[in-house]
Design goal:
The complex is a heterodimer. By secondary structure, chain A is mainly alpha-helical. Chain A has a domain of about 230 residues. In chain A, about 75% of the residues lie in helices and about 0% in strands. A two-stranded antiparallel ribbon of chain A has the order 1-4. A two-stranded antiparallel ribbon of chain A has the order 2-3. In chain A, a hairpin with a 2-residue loop joins β2 and β3. In chain A, α4 packs antiparallel against α6 and α9 packs across α11. The longest helix of chain A is centred in the last third of the chain and has 28 residues. By secondary structure, chain B is mostly helical. Helix content of chain B is about 70%, strand content about 0%. A two-stranded antiparallel ribbon of chain B has the order 1-2. Classes of the chains: A mainly alpha, B mainly alpha. At the A-B interface, α7, α12 and α15 of A face α4, α10 and α12 of B.
Chain lengths: ~375, ~290
């Protein structure tokens, strides 16, 4: 991540202030404003359709955060992340539907939150299982093992075995009213939106703080030069597996959220192309946690704008709207290629450049 | 015993097609260092182009020729537009550009041709299997195998006996030395992509012959990745052996293991096998071994 400079003439007088997250009153004001907009403004002023879009952005961001941890912070290139999201989603669903919860937990609405946590842990452990090859292979071969993880998990284990639990055939659908958090039932988009924004904020806070500790520094060391990291005493196998666990944990949270968003589940929601989509989101967004979030916002909003632009265009050439899914894939492919050729450092680089321009003015050189 | 031999023969036949596609993949990797994840979609394009011309009434051999020509053009185009700008970038950027390319091609194919399965009508090969001893070999598999081997031999002859092929071999072996001898790296990159497109295109046409052409041929083209991992990323004979092995393994898994797993294990068995194989021999059977202990 590029460094953000403090505005000219601003300095701190003790270490506590220097280590703070929000270092100037202006930043504090901006962040409070952002939190107000996101928590209060959006639900009040956006209509249902855009709240649904925001839910998709949140889901993509949670998935992309896990991938960003793996690729951007430990250098472990992964093309199988959708499998771990699927594991989280299925664990959460099966816990809600099949587990004999004691009555008081259901009445207090604690079944779903507990299932989120358990789903996250299971997804993390599953991710560690497929991260074990990273102790032996690197680079391209790790890509292949994570790809194998994706196919084995989703196309084989989930499709053949887990979906059949309860004799439902391939797709689960949760009856309304089963997803409760406390006294609130997650049935409207706005309640799902609040769930999403709370989960996303908590995850971003926890991960940002994790990245500032020894663990985060170890990951960055492994990414930059793992042999040197090992000579400095960092146990790279332990930290790689820890990275897989945390990324899987976040993927599990994303999967459990997907269950609330859609109230239905099928292995087709987690194809290999979704894993590739998440990696593409990371590459478009750039480095750091804000890269994951920028990438998600960009991709989902661009797809929505494309859809809105396709409606008048389909009057001329009606195939555009019928085959819109294929157009989305083409647009995604072109977007990745365009970004990688012309803007390889992603959107977050431009964001930090703009910020530093204003912070350092008039000395922006 | 008869089942075993039939499965084995079928596996070798299909494996011949995989070997052809794997040859293209290894060529791209050796000559330009690009790990190409778009191989599935290249086979898709080849299959659709072939069937497009065939359904217009062109005889099959001419269709294959057209696929080869379009493969050359597309290969050079893709290399110039997308990959020239990425020389020297980190590996993830190059892989993701091929991924973006694969999304683009898949969307393009789906947009133009839709998702229905098309079949080669009238059938190119007769439906009656012919028998060798007690083995019944279906004509489709047999002629696909023959065509794949013929093309494979053509490519090998190209590498051994023409100046262009020799310059590609030189670049694959040691790029800097080849550059110092006057070999044009840009030509070699373009040629390697063109050959890979051609190989994948014909492979797709043949695979489409077996199963019908639809958008899931892209997944079969992805099976080339376990094949090259088995054989070693850098080695052309390894690619051939890997392709044949993957064909055989897939058929064995389909015949013998399907009874134990509901719904079939045929598609993902090569990937599971590859995952386990990578733990023991990450460099494949013939690949260059870089010792890096963790």
């Amino acid at each position: 991540m590029t460094k953000v400079w403090l505005p000219c003439g601003y300095y701190h007088e003790n270490y506590a202030k220097d280590q703070g997250w929000w270092q100037t009153p202006v930043i504090k004001g901006k962040m409070v404003l952002l939190l107000l907009i996101v928590f209060v403004g959006f639900p009040l002023f956006l209509d249902e359709y855009w709240i649904g879009v925001a839910n998709m952005i949140g889901y993509t961001a949670l998935g992309a955060l896990g991938v960003q941890l793996l690729i951007g912070y430990a250098g472990l290139i992964t093309l199988g992340h959708a499998a771990f999201i699927a594991v989280g989603a299925y664990t959460s669903t099966l816990l809600i539907l099949q587990f004999p919860w004691p009555e008081f937990l259901i009445n207090w609405g604690l079944a779903y939150p507990i299932s989120i946590i358990i789903a996250a842990i299971v997804a993390g452990l599953w991710s560690v299982l497929f991260g074990l090859p990273s102790a032996r292979v690197k680079g391209f071969y790790l890509i292949l093992t994570t790809m194998a993880a994706q196919f084995i998990t989703v196309d084989f284990i989930l499709t053949q075995y887990v979906s059949q639990i309860g004799g439902r055939g391939q797709a689960f659908s949760l009856p309304p009213g089963t997803i409760k958090i406390g006294p609130w039932v997650m049935d409207t988009d706005i309640k799902v939106y609040f769930l999403m924004i709370i989960l996303l904020t908590l995850t971003v806070m926890i991960i940002s703080n994790l990245l500032r500790t020894r663990v985060g520094r170890a990951w960055v060391a492994i990414r930059d030069n793992d042999i040197a990291a090992e000579t400095l005493g960092i146990n790279i196998i332990w930290y790689k597996l820890l990275n897989f666990f945390v990324a899987g944990f976040i993927a599990g949270i994303a999967g459990a959220f997907w269950v609330a968003n859609l109230a239905a589940l099928s292995p087709e929601h987690f194809p290999w192309s979704w894993s590739l989509w998440l990696v593409g989101v990371i590459l478009i967004g750039g480095a750091g946690i804000d890269g994951a979030i920028f990438g998600s916002i960009f991709m989902i909003v661009v797809m929505e704008l494309l859809q809105m632009a396709a409606i008048p265009a389909s009057e001329i050439y009606s195939k555009i709207l019928i085959d819109f899914a294929f157009l989305k894939e083409m647009a995604f492919g072109l977007a990745i290629c365009a970004f990688l050729i012309y803007e390889p450092r992603g959107l977050s680089y431009r964001w930090w450049q703009a910020k530093n321009y204003f912070n350092l003015w008039p000395f922006s050189y | 015993m008869e089942l075993f031999l039939m499965t084995f023969t079928n596996g070798i036949m299909v494996g011949g097609i995989y070997a052809l596609v794997a040859l293209g993949w290894v060529l791209i990797y050796k000559c330009s260092g690009v790990l190409n994840l778009a191989m599935g979609e290249l086979t898709l394009i080849g299959a659709y182009v072939t069937i497009y011309f065939y359904l217009m009434g062109v005889p099959f051999i001419l269709c294959i020729l057209f696929t080869l020509i379009i493969g050359i053009m597309l290969g050079i185009l893709v290399e110039r537009i997308f990959l020239d700008k990425l020389i020297g970038e980190p590996i993830l950027a190059v892989i993701m550009v091929t991924v973006g390319l694969s999304f683009f091609l898949k969307g393009l194919v789906g947009f133009i041709w839709g998702t229905d399965t098309r079949v080669f009508t009238p059938a190119i090969f007769s439906l009656k299997p012919f028998t060798i001893g007690f083995l019944k070999i279906s004509t489709v598999y047999f002629w696909s195998f023959v065509l794949a081997i013929v093309l494979f031999l053509v490519f090998v002859a190209f590498f051994k006996y023409t100046r262009w092929g020799l310059s590609m071999q030189a670049t694959a072996d040691d790029e800097t030395a080849a550059l110092s001898l006057g070999v044009s790296a840009r030509f070699v990159y373009a040629a390697s992509w063109a050959i890979a497109f051609m190989a994948a295109g014909v492979g797709g046409a043949l695979l489409g012959n077996i199963n019908g052409v639809n958008i899931s041929i892209g997944f079969l083209g992805l099976l080339v990745l376990p094949a090259v991992v088995l054989g070693g990323l850098n080695s052309i004979p390894g690619a051939v052996v890997g392709g044949l092995l993957i064909g055989v393994l897939q058929n064995f898994a389909g015949t013998y293991l399907d009874a134990y797993f509901p719904g079939g294990v045929k598609e993902i068995f090569p990937f599971a096998f590859m995952a386990v194989f990578l733990l023991f021999m990450p460099y494949g059977l013939w690949g260059w071994i870089k010792i890096e202990r963790m």
